[in-house]
Amino acid sequence: MAWYILYLLNLLWAVAGTSTQTQGSCYLTIGQLALTVMALTSSCRDPGNKVSILHRQMENWAPSSPNAQSSTFYGPSLAVLALCQKNPETTLPIAVRFAKILLANSSPFNTDTGAMVILALTCMYNKIPVGSEEGYRSLFGQVLEDVVENISMKIKDNGIIGDIYSTGLAMQALSVTPKHPPKKWNCKKTMDTILKEIELGKFHNPMSIAQILPSLKGKTYLDVPHVSCIPGHEGQPTLPSQTNPAPTSASNITIIYTINNQLRGVELHFNETINVSVKAGSVLLVVLEEAQRRSSMFKFETTMTSWGLVVSSINNIAENVHHRTYWQFLSGKTPLNEGVADYIPFNHEHITANFTQY
Ligand code: B12
Ligand SMILES: *[C@@H]1O[C@H](CO)[C@@H](O)[C@H](O)[C@H]1NC(C)=O
Ligand SMILES: *[C@@H]1O[C@H](CO)[C@@H](O)[C@H](O)[C@H]1NC(C)=O
Ligand SMILES: *[C@@H]1O[C@H](CO)[C@@H](O)[C@H](O)[C@H]1NC(C)=O
Ligand SMILES: *[C@@H]1O[C@H](CO)[C@@H](O)[C@H](O)[C@H]1NC(C)=O
Ligand SMILES: *[C@@H]1O[C@H](CO)[C@@H](O)[C@H](O)[C@H]1NC(C)=O
C-alpha cells in the first residue's frame, strides 16, 4: 500500500529534479516549487528553505491580467496547498487574497484547476485558527461552494469528470470538500469507468499515473503531511516489467497534417497542409518528424516537461508565456487530450496545429 504513495511521490520528486536541471538549477515556477515541497515532505525529506522562498513568491504573486484564464491559477493553487500544509496560520493572508482573486475572475471554468483550488482551500478551511474572524470561514466556504458547483457540472453520465485526465484530481477534490455538490456524485461509477480506461491503456504517461493513483488508493494530496516517516522504511518500489506488445502491423497510414498561424505577425501568417505516410500505430510525433523531413516549412521544436514533450515552436513561431500563446493540437475541430508523444492518430485523420492563446 504505502509504496504506491511513495512511488507517486518519488516520481513527483524525480520530475521536480528533472525540471530543475532543464531550466537551470535556480529557476522553478511557483507551481514547480510547490510540487517539490510536497514531494520532498512526503518522501520524508526536509524541503529546507524552499518553503520560505515559496511563501515570499506567493506574497508577490499577482494574476497575469484581470481576466486571466483559469488554468493560470493551477500553479498558485498548488502553492497555497503546499504552504497550508506547512503553516496554515502564516498562509492565511495569502490564501485570503487568492480566494478574493478567484471570486472576481470570470473566465471559463477549467476542471483540473478547479480541483486543485478545492484541495488548497479545503486545507485552509479545515485549518482556520481558532479565534479567527468568522469572515475567513465564509470567504473560503463561498469559493469552495462556487467551484464545487462548477466541477459538478462537469460530471458526465459515465462518471468522467471533465476529461479522463482531470478525473483523478476531481475525485480527490470531491472526496474532501466540506461543500456538497448540487448534483449527486456516484463515486463507484467514476471508479469503474477509470479502471476500464486503465485497462484500455490510456494511463501509460507517468504523470497521468501519478495524478490518478491517489484516488484509486483512497488518498488525496491532503494526506501528504500525514505520511509516516519511519527511518529505514523507504524501501525501493519494485517496478513492473516492461510489457509493450510487439507492433503487429507494419502497414502505412496517411495523416493530413495542417499547421496554422493567424495570430503572430501578419506577414508571418501561414496555413499549410501536407499528407504524411507513417507506420500504423505511430504516435503523432512521428508524423511531425516525417512532415519536417519532407518540407522545411514543417520544422518544429520541442521542450521537455513533467508530462513529456511539448511542441514549443513550429516554422519558427514559438509559444510564449507572456503572450499566453501556444500550439494547440486538434483532430478535425476537437482539441486532442494527449500530447504528440502519446497520441496515436488513425488513418486519414486530419490533425491541425493551431497557434492560439489561453
Ligand atoms: C496549464 C496547462 C496548460 C498550459 C501550459 C502553459 C502554462 N504556462 O500554463 C497550455 C494551455 C499551454 C497547455 C497546453 C496543452 N495541454 Co495542458 N494543461 C495545463 C494544466 C491545466 C496545468 C499544468 C500545470 O500548470 N502544472 C503545474 C506545474 C507546476 O507543473 P509543470 O510540470 O511545470 O507544468 C507544465 C506541464 O504541465 C506542461 N504542460 C501543460 N499541458 C501539457 C500537455 C502535454 C501533453 C505536455 C507534454 C505538457 C504539458 O506545461 C506546464 C507549464 O510549463 C494541466 C492539468 C494537469 N492535470 O496537470 C493540463 C494538461 C497537462 N494538458 C493537457 C493537454 C492535453 C494539453 C495539450 C496537448 C492540449 C492541446 N489539444 O493542444 C496542449 C499541449 C500541446 C503542445 N503544444 O504540445 C492534458 C494532458 C493529458 C495527457 N494525457 O497527456 C492535461 C492533463 C489536461 C487534461 N486534464 O486533459 N496546457
Ligand atoms: C464557475 O464557472 C463560471 C462559468 O464558466 C465562471 O464564470 C466562474 O468564474 C466559475 N467560478 C469559479 C469560482 O471558478
Ligand atoms: C486553411 O486552409 C484550409 C484548406 O487547406 C481552409 O479550409 C481553411 O479555411 C484555411 N484557414 C484559414 C484561417 O485561412
Ligand atoms: C491528401 O489526401 C487527401 C485525402 O486523403 C486528398 O484529398 C488530397 O488531395 C491529398 N493532398 C495532397 C497534396 O496529396
Ligand atoms: C511508410 O512510412 C514510413 C515512415 O514511417 C516512410 O518512410 C515510408 O516511405 C512509407 N511507405 C510508403 C509506402 O509510403
Ligand atoms: C486557431 O487560432 C485562431 C487564433 O487564436 C482562432 O481564431 C481560431 O478559432 C483557431 N481555430 C480553431 C480550429 O480552433
TrEMBL record:
<protein>
    <submittedName>
        <fullName>Cobalamin binding intrinsic factor isoform X3</fullName>
    </submittedName>
</protein>
<keyword id="KW-0171">Cobalt transport</keyword>
<keyword id="KW-1015">Disulfide bond</keyword>
<dbReference type="InterPro" id="IPR051588">
    <property type="entry name" value="Cobalamin_Transport"/>
</dbReference>
<dbReference type="InterPro" id="IPR002157">
    <property type="entry name" value="Cbl-bd_prot"/>
</dbReference>
<feature type="binding site">
    <location>
        <position position="211"/>
    </location>
    <ligand>
        <name>cyanocob(III)alamin</name>
    </ligand>
</feature>
<dbReference type="GO" id="GO:0015889">
    <property type="term" value="P:cobalamin transport"/>
</dbReference>
<dbReference type="GO" id="GO:0005615">
    <property type="term" value="C:extracellular space"/>
</dbReference>
<feature type="signal peptide">
    <location>
        <begin position="1"/>
        <end position="17"/>
    </location>
</feature>
<keyword id="KW-0813">Transport</keyword>
<keyword id="KW-0406">Ion transport</keyword>
<keyword id="KW-0732">Signal</keyword>
<feature type="binding site">
    <location>
        <position position="358"/>
    </location>
    <ligand>
        <name>cyanocob(III)alamin</name>
    </ligand>
</feature>
<keyword id="KW-0964">Secreted</keyword>
<feature type="binding site">
    <location>
        <position position="163"/>
    </location>
    <ligand>
        <name>cyanocob(III)alamin</name>
    </ligand>
</feature>
<feature type="binding site">
    <location>
        <position position="112"/>
    </location>
    <ligand>
        <name>cyanocob(III)alamin</name>
    </ligand>
</feature>
<keyword id="KW-0170">Cobalt</keyword>
<comment type="similarity">
    <text>Belongs to the eukaryotic cobalamin transport proteins family.</text>
</comment>
<dbReference type="GO" id="GO:0031419">
    <property type="term" value="F:cobalamin binding"/>
</dbReference>
<dbReference type="Pfam" id="PF01122">
    <property type="entry name" value="Cobalamin_bind"/>
</dbReference>
<dbReference type="GO" id="GO:0006824">
    <property type="term" value="P:cobalt ion transport"/>
</dbReference>
<feature type="binding site">
    <location>
        <position position="336"/>
    </location>
    <ligand>
        <name>cyanocob(III)alamin</name>
    </ligand>
</feature>
<feature type="disulfide bond">
    <location>
        <begin position="84"/>
        <end position="123"/>
    </location>
</feature>
